[in-house]
Design goal:
33% strand; single chain; alpha/beta; nine-stranded mixed sheet; Barwin-like endoglucanases
Length: 253
């Protein structure tokens, strides 16, 4: 079964009713909401859970080879702490925590928006486990919104690695997300990754469908002979015209 077939078959009547009537079903992808979590290096696994400790898989994640572990850690910031932060496996080369802006407020940290792995200069914190604690000098980020994409789906959707697109979600708190970065890999299963703050803002649940919009002008407006369209850079959100300012919630007063 292809990704499109599986997403179509997973839609129930309620979900289908939430799709805009003009939505192109061939450009729909599922959403995975990403709650706060920690990726740990080998050194920190040993320090937090004991020398030689092996992470214990609890459940598989939607991306192949990734899994949630039974292990959790407490994150201590300058203001407060957050307990029960789930560790994800497998072990990585560098420790990284992906949190939300709300988590940053709780901890008392100004978290930067970064792609996974880009942790240089980011805030640190203390991590506490059942065996010990570690002090991170850096590693806490808010994950940049992104879409994992298999090469086959990238070709079908006309997307390329590193491209930025819009993503549209309908409903009473419908939203158009800009600056969604496309990541293409043979190891990826196609889905949009949002954090809990982003999902809650529009009432999005894991498994809901969103529409990929490569360009507001080309995909949503369709005005013939538009003099502005040649200057548009995909994935960049600006009120280029009256259509944009009237239809993109970010620009509504």
């Amino acid at each position: 079964m292809t990704m499109v077939d599986s997403t179509r078959s997973s839609m129930d009547g309620d979900r289908a009713a939430r799709l805009p009537s003009e939505a192109r079903e061939d450009r729909l992808v599922p959403v995975a909401l990403s709650a706060r979590h920690a990726h740990l290096c080998r050194e920190h696994v040993d320090a937090l859970f004991g020398p030689g400790h092996e992470l214990t898989p609890a459940s598989e994640l939607s991306q192949p080879g990734q899994y949630a572990c039974k292990e959790t850690v407490e994150v201590v910031g300058p203001k407060r702490s957050i307990s029960g932060v789930r560790v994800l496996g497998p072990v990585r080369s560098a420790t990284q925590l992906e949190l939300s802006f709300t988590d940053g407020i709780v901890l008392g940290l100004n978290l930067p928006v970064r792609m996974s792995g880009d942790i240089a200069g980011s805030p640190g914190a203390y991590l506490i486990g059942p065996h010990g604690a570690v002090k991170l000098e850096e590693g806490l980020i808010v994950a940049m919104r992104h879409m994992h994409c298999s090469p086959a789906d990238a070709r079908r959707l006309g997307l390329s690695d590193g491209q930025k697109v819009y993503v549209r979600y309908p409903g009473p708190r419908g939203i158009l997300f800009s600056e969604v970065t496309i990541r293409v890999s043979e190891s990826f299963s196609t889905e949009l990754h949002l954090d809990t703050d982003e999902g809650n803002s529009a009432g999005i649940k894991s498994g809901d469908l969103v529409e990929i919009v490569s360009s507001i002008c080309k995909d949503l407006c369709g005005m013939d002979g538009c003099p502005i369209e040649p200057e548009i850079r995909q994935g960049v959100s600006r009120p280029f015209c009256g259509y944009t300012s009237d239809n993109v919630s970010f620009f509504k007063g």
